[in-house]
Write a structure and sequence with these properties.
Aldolase_TIM; TIM Barrel; about 15% strand; FBA_I; two-stranded antiparallel ribbon; fructose-bisphosphate aldolase; glycolysis; binds 1,6-di-O-phosphono-beta-D-fructofuranose; EC 4.1.2.13
Length: about 375
């Protein structure tokens, strides 16, 4: 039975049964040797990618493309979950099987993007908060009925040291927003993935990226605590720590990324959280895999169980899709090859979760990336 608001409008505490269900979803998603496919791009975002590949951004093309991503028969060996956009939740594959059922049949949990995109903060328009809170509880209950068991909500933080960004106000507003989202998702039976994405756009050094990440994660876990969120029934989706895309020293080495990412997580993520699932953030497909692998190898060498209690895996969007889209080209005759590519990318990253990735990488080219400089706010 899902929670209703009390007469005073407040959320009653979760029952033990509700907590058990939320925690077991989080634990299933955090299964070692598996990760999460993020195929939840909103219509404008997927539109940019489809249009760049010469395809039309209509509902049927989006359905056919999502079918490619979810069709591999062994996908459940490498993916514990897949995050869908709400439109996809209500669509079916070409045999008429609803996508949540397609995933269930393969042992993959269905997730859903529950945010409604970004809006500029009045007075600091290069910073954003995330939209969709007013309808979140009702929508989340509906998504649960459609088969979703976990949710994702993306907040973004921009670094621009010269302009004084991020502001304290933006960090606070986004932390509180993520905490409210997490509490409402749990009330609806959905395990929340909390995503405070620190944008890669900018000239910042990896060290500044790490410093900002610590501030942001500190604020987020403080707000989750204030909101009474049950941490065992949550997951974190952060960015790996690296240089800004326009930094003079453009590419941080994988070793530095692993070191700073692990240090940041160690300092700020409570052990009660079962899993940390990195976003790919516009890295090339191969870089994302190599970095995930090195993070897990480094953690293992440092006594993973003691210092890093969470599963560290992937919740990649672009790094699991760029080559798939290139192979598919929207053509029926490329379906099988594109499905193989989707499976190959998922498998490579599942191996990297175990710190056992040896290559060669299945992507078309090492620089296959869908980096998009406008992933902060854009008009809806
Ligand atoms: O801008 P949108 O449409 O909300 O999409 C944001 C995308 O960012 C992610 O949160 C992370 O994706 P990447 O791995 O491509 O960085 C995806 O889950 C999601 O599809």
């Amino acid at each position: 039975m899902l929670v209703e608001f009390g007469e005073d409008g407040a959320l009653p505490p979760l029952s033990e049964e509700q907590k058990d269900a939320l925690a077991s979803t989080a634990q299933a998603l955090a299964t070692r040797g598996k990760g999460i496919l993020a195929a939840d791009e909103s219509t404008p975002t997927i539109g940019k990618r489809l249009e760049a590949a010469g395809l039309t951004n209509d509902a049927e093309t989006r359905r056919r493309y999502r079918e490619v991503l979810l069709a591999h028969p062994q996908i459940g060996e490498w993916l514990a979950g897949a995050i869908l956009f709400e439109e996809t939740l209500g669509q079916a594959n070409s045999d008429g099987v609803a996508f949540p059922q397609v995933l269930k049949d393969k042992g993959v949990l269905t997730g859903v993007k529950t945010d409604k995109g970004l809006a500029p903060i009045p007075g600091s328009p290069r910073e954003t908060t995330t939209r969709g809170m007013d309808t979140l509880l009702a929508r989340s209950k509906g998504y649960y009925q459609q088969g979703a068991r976990f949710a994702k909500w993306r907040a973004t933080i921009r670094i621009d040291a010269e302009a004084g960004l991020p502001t304290r106000g933006a960090i606070h507003a986004n932390a509180v927003g993520l905490a409210r989202y997490a509490a409402l998702s749990q009330a609806a039976g959905l395990t929340p993935i909390v995503e405070p994405e620190i944008l890669i756009e900018g000239t910042h050094s990896p060290e500044l990226f790490a410093e900002v990440s610590e501030r942001v994660l500190g604020a987020v876990y403080g707000a989750l605590s204030e909101a009474g969120v049950f941490l065992e029934g949550t997951l974190l989706k952060p960015q790996m720590i690296m240089a800004g895309v326009d930094a003079p020293e453009k590419k941080a080495s994988s070793a530095l990324t692993a070191e700073l990412t692990l240090r940041t997580l160690r300092r700020r993520v409570p052990p009660a959280v079962p899993g940390v699932f990195f976003l790919s953030g516009g890295q090339s497909e191969e870089d994302a895999t190599v970095n995930l692998d090195l993070i897990n190898r480094t953690a293992a060498a440092e006594d993973a169980g003691r210092r890093y209690p969470w599963t560290m895996s992937f919740s990649f969007g672009r790094s699991l899709q760029a080559s798939v889209l290139k192979v598919w080209e929207g053509k029926a005759e490329n379906f099988d090859a594109a499905v193989e590519m989707a499976g190959g990318l998922a498998k490579a990253n599942a191996t990297a979760q175990l710190g056992q990735y040896e290559g060669p990488h299945p992507s078309i080219s090492g620089d296959s990336s869908l980096h998009d400089p406008n992933r902060g706010w854009r008009p809806a």
